[in-house]
Amino acid sequence: MSTTEITVVIVDDEESNLVSLRKIFQKEGLRALTAGSAREALDLCRQHRVDVVLTDLMMPQMSGIDLVKALRTVAPDTEVVLMTAYGTIETAVEAMREGAYDFVEKPLKRLNIVKTVRKAAERHALVAENRTLKKELTALRRSSGPRALVGSSPALRRALDIASQAAPSTATVLVLGESGTGKELLARHIHDRSGVSGAFVGVNLAALPETIVESELFGHERGSFTGAVTRREGRIAQAAGGTLFLDEIGELSPAVQVKLLRVLQEGEYEPLGGRTTKASFRLIAATNRDLRAAVEAGEFREDLYYRLNVIAVTSPPLRDRRDDIPLLADHFLALYARKNAREPLVPSRAALDKLVAYDWPGNVRELENAIERAVVLAKGETLELEDLPEAVGRAERRTDESMSFPLGTPLAEIERRVLHRTLEHTAGDKQLAAQLLGISARTIYRKVGTDQ
Q1: Which residues partner with 243 through β-bridges?
Q2: What is the pTM of this model?
Q3: DSSP calls for 297-356
Q4: What is the CATH number of domain 3-136?
Q5: What's the average model confidence in pLDDT over 20-40?
Q6: Secondary structure (DSSP) of 381-396
Q7: What digits encode the pLDDT tens for the residues 392-412?
Q8: I need a labelling partner for 101 at 20 to 30 A (CA). Which of 10, 134, 197, 316 fits?
Q9: Could you tell me which CATH number the domain at 154-316 has?
């Protein structure tokens, strides 16, 4: 720790002592602030980031030991060094029990006091660094679980950038993408960075029988229908103050679509057989369907679609983030090695090439299943080609997908060809194509329309 980073507050009721000590520390390259009382020192600690407080022990109104106690609340990380006169050592020891770092005896010796303050500042820096590392480790452990968002490809970064920007707001988010791309992980990413105190409550609507979806979401009172023998709290109530994640939102029946629209518009709902209840949650919905097409086909309410599609973010398919496949493979190899009590497999060059070459129609979920199978069946310490599923083993190395144009090609023609090639690459998914090109989906709809 360089001395220019150290700030020390000197506390003494004698002005001459303050002036003398300030000169000493300034000559040593430390930033020195002075206070004529403990209360003034507390004010300085509220206004500045202070590493060390050097205080006289015996002062009127508020003593050095009282200052040590007060600093626990005002600046708990700041270290305190006490200046003690002969006969007050026992009091200084008591102050150390209260949390003071050390004490120096009067008459003060320049080298001794500078050395003690620097050591106190080093301890302050170590404590702060340790706290930061603990936070980072906790975050790493939280993010490196079995359901982690792993990768750094441009396609994933673009999705995460949009998700992170949307997170602190209360806006409804619609997560688009194919099955197995990690739409729920993206929703949890938004929730974890939203700052809300409530829970993340997820519902897979496609997994629920249509007859119980309404009760599952809104809850019901006892006796509200045949079989309702007890009162049931719905998922909307469980998500109060937090996030409600509705996966496969395109599977909602028209009747439930109307009720969900009312919740979003009015901020209230009615449990089956119950009274009107206020709703307080942030909604994130997800689908692998083209909701715009479902609206045009009369299968999904247009007004609900616009309520859901305030902010859209697309979870990219694995074939568009091939750079992430080695990272994901390592992640799943380590995960399933722990679960199966064996050392992580090291993928051979041939196996890794096939993993990257395969198109993964089932996306990350299919990759995870393939790696789990390989960990269970592999006989050695290396992930070999024969340990992979047959379809993966047949994958051919991909050719270069770059485009070239003759010198002098009009920009409009280049733009048109890049746009259409990108749409071919995304199988017509305009939202994903817009993210890949860094433009709005509205621009793609407009430009495609002018070409037809």
Answers
A1: 200, 282
A2: 0.57
A3: TTSS-HHHHHHHTTEEEE---GGG-GGGHHHHHHHHHHHHHHHTTSPPPEE-HHHHHHHH
A4: 3.40.50.2300
A5: 93
A6: SEE-GGGS-HHHHTPP
A7: 988 876 555 566 666 667 787
A8: 134
A9: 3.40.50.300
